[in-house]
Task: inverse folding
């Protein structure tokens, strides 16, 4: 499968590096362009990929076109390459937030297969949670191609486009909230005598291990996060005391409010 990337920013760089490192794609099957003509050649040289002379040339030579340009520019790029897409029959994968499938399909013209994907910042370390939503003309084979590409940078979930706002909150925005939670716990550690570096290392590793435990136990036993909470909370112990104090201070309502606000803002922007 030959894959072309239009745009070579941070997210495209993460996907390309992940795809090559995991051998999910061959570097020789990757084609790159970008508006400045600087980022794409640099990335291509780094991983051993190819640079196309233009967006149109790229769209004619690949099986999948991944659009990594800014949302305001994406419809213009699609209009530019619409003729090439009609000739090549390539699948279009959009990384742009806030651009619905209907608008992308109109800009692409004809019956071009279009899929929206939403990775998160953790794609940079191969630990993204990516949402995939298929357009009107995308087939099961096209979805499989999107899965193959996005699996190189983490996990994925096929969802309805109507679910993108909540997905954006839970996967796209939540890393920043998790960073802030680590920061807050680390400050508590400093309050009780640890250095900031020690406290951050302790909390970050505990969060990483806890996340992996949730995934592993859900897969092997069908355990829920609530089940795991019960396993850690001994009767009359320190953990239940801290948990009840956090709940009394509004832990669950605060986190739900964060999600509500992010969903509301995403819908306003769209």
Result:
């Amino acid at each position: 499968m030959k894959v072309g990337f239009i745009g070579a920013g941070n997210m495209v760089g993460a996907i390309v590096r992940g795809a090559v490192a995991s051998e999910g794609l061959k570097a020789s099957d990757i084609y790159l362009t970008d508006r400045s003509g600087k980022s794409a050649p640099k990335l291509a040289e780094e991983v051993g990929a190819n640079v196309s002379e233009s967006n149109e040339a790229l769209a004619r030579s690949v099986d999948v076109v991944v659009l990594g340009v800014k949302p305001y520019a994406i419809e213009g790029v699609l209009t530019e390459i619409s003729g090439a897409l009609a000739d090549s029959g390539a699948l279009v994968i959009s990384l742009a937030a806030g651009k619905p499938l209907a608008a992308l399909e109109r800009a692409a013209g004809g019956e071009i297969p279009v899929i929206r994907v939403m990775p998160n910042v953790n794609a940079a370390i191969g630990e993204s949670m990516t949402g995939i939503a298929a357009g009107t003309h995308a087939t099961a084979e096209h979805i499989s191609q999107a899965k193959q590409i996005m699996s190189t940078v983490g996990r994925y979930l096929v969802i309805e486009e109507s679910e993108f706002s909540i997905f954006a909150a839970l996967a796209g925005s939540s890393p920043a909230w998790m960073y802030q939670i680590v920061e807050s716990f680390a400050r508590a550690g400093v309050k009780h005598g640890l250095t900031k570096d020690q406290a951050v290392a302790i909390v970050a590793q505990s969060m990483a291990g806890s996340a992996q435990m949730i995934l592993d136990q859900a897969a092997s036993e069908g355990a829920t996060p609530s089940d795991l909470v019960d396993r850690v909370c001994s009767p009359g112990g320190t953990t239940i005391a801290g948990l009840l104090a956090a709940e009394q201070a509004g832990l669950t309502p605060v986190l739900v409010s964060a999600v509500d606000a992010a969903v509301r803002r995403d819908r306003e922007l769209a």
Q: What stands out?
A: Strands lie at 3-6, 30-33, 50-51, 64-67, 91-94, 114-118, 128-134, 154-158. Residues 188 and 204 are 14 Å apart (CA to CA).
